[in-house]
Amino acid sequence: MTPGHGIWDLFTSSTFLSSSTPIKINFKMAALRFVKSVLLSFQKESGLEPRLFGENLRVTAAEPGRVDFELDIKKEHTNRLDIIHGGAIASMVDLGGSLAVASKGLYATGVSTDLNVTYLSSGGRVGDVLKAVVKCDKFGKTLAYTSIQFTNSKGEIAARGSHTKYIALAWKHPENAVDQLSPQK
Amino acid sequence: MTPGHGIWDLFTSSTFLSSSTPIKINFKMAALRFVKSVLLSFQKESGLEPRLFGENLRVTAAEPGRVDFELDIKKEHTNRLDIIHGGAIASMVDLGGSLAVASKGLYATGVSTDLNVTYLSSGGRVGDVLKAVVKCDKFGKTLAYTSIQFTNSKGEIAARGSHTKYIALAWKHPENAVDQLSPQK
Amino acid sequence: MTPGHGIWDLFTSSTFLSSSTPIKINFKMAALRFVKSVLLSFQKESGLEPRLFGENLRVTAAEPGRVDFELDIKKEHTNRLDIIHGGAIASMVDLGGSLAVASKGLYATGVSTDLNVTYLSSGGRVGDVLKAVVKCDKFGKTLAYTSIQFTNSKGEIAARGSHTKYIALAWKHPENAVDQLSPQK
Amino acid sequence: MTPGHGIWDLFTSSTFLSSSTPIKINFKMAALRFVKSVLLSFQKESGLEPRLFGENLRVTAAEPGRVDFELDIKKEHTNRLDIIHGGAIASMVDLGGSLAVASKGLYATGVSTDLNVTYLSSGGRVGDVLKAVVKCDKFGKTLAYTSIQFTNSKGEIAARGSHTKYIALAWKHPENAVDQLSPQK
Q1: Is A62 in contact with A73 (CB distance < 8 Å)?
Q2: C132 touching chain D per CB within 8 A
């Protein structure tokens, strides 16, 4: 990308290069900015995310390999027991895995191969906030492995999940930022 | 329930008892009717099902222990690649498992413990129909085990899943029809 | 391979080519022979299979994409409840997935990415036979997807599983028979 | 149990009660001692554990809800690629889940309902040590939920897993130590 345009100014601007701020903090800022841009793309270009989550799902923190997000539970997320639906949580395992892959610098986030969810406790009712931390445990050329844990408003583990993604084709996307966010690879 | 009211007329009417139609067919009719009533309850009382699936998801066949259903894929079910979203499929693994439990006679269908999905091929695009067959492989007093397979419009296995449900409390629901649909238990 | 040597004589001999036996049956014979040769290789070259299963595990049928096998349950397969151990079943989900991949013609069978097992009923005690049917549901260049179901001596589903394998490197093995067993690919 | 007999002397002896050592440390000591006694019971009474792991698997630390253990990889744990077999790891997901349940005070550890393993990197070769940390994430009257992570000798996540256990019947075992190790429940 050309310096001066879009989110990667952060990396190319002289402010960034000459910054005395520790690089780790800049990495976090860059990762957070990039993950938010990917979530925005989901909200704009995907069908399910705006329908099911919209403004109710927020990324609260990110660094390369990890994303924290939370959901304001609304009626549309619930089941007949008036608690958050297993399908809503499973959908966030999927979306969260994509965000974790994004935190490593992929704008395109591949397709799912395996997704597992274990439900331990109620995730909460309308008005509660469900928090999630998702990690990219391995980031390979072909496969990415992510894991997620959800915490309800009582501080209990509500659910945990695993999401394996096939990302071989995602490496070609022009808006990727892998060089910036996963420089070791 | 009192004879003459609601869906269980089928079982209590003299027409049913004296019927010369093979019992197996009546079982299927009863199961289909009951599963459809449970799906209707999901559409009315739950939050996620009407938001995400609504009229686009139809039960096409049922017998005790098995339900066939299909989804007209709409924009709201898709991801950024314009194919059906892994979260939409995972939500149908959850809902489908509940319908399979319903096919055994439970109106209340318990809560999830473990849900797995494996994604093999694209489930299709807007305008395609995704078909699913879900089975209740074991129906115990505490746990029910269900498995599901999705077939895309090319006839390929798009995904398969497993859903384990904790149903101990579901046995108490007044609208259950276990005696009718799972008479052996 | 040169005609006249090894297991692929079956495909190259004139007997095969001029056979009036339906090709489907020859496919089954070839698949069974090949899968048995792969199992033999596991017994000889691997560490876990001879230690845990040895002669007690037998392939009883195979065709491209499907393998039937069974285990004579011995003391070494059991847990403290004197029934077959979840780890023994999980090990057979892994091994079975490899055999299903072999039934499509791969002698090398790749590495695991995800393995799931759901345990429905006891698999049996010492002296019982546990039967398994494993299928290769999709056989791609990079990933193979297999599923398995175990039936105990009462005819109940004891367990079912899913096993996803990364097979990109397995395609290079000189003893593969993919052209013969998966000619459509 | 009568004071003066068996492993629970630890809890009943005056040394324990009058100890000035912080209670948390005594909990850890008690949990470690108890988990080791359960592992010993597996080695003596089960079939698979002595066959497959024996002295090569050691518990290195424990506290209520968490167990650390490690395996010296031997030939019998390997696959045809001479690295640790997916089945050996899956068996340790199962065994590890049982040990995590034991760390909460159950001597009997129930039966499996769902077991998932995701394989990220090679677990190692003969001579390497594979380390595992397993946690009991929820300990209910009917179900216990455990999760595990394996680290290879390079410090990479080799695999992670989830194991859900049905423990309703395990609560009746006379050698349980739940009152001591899970006093809050």
Answers
A1: no
A2: no
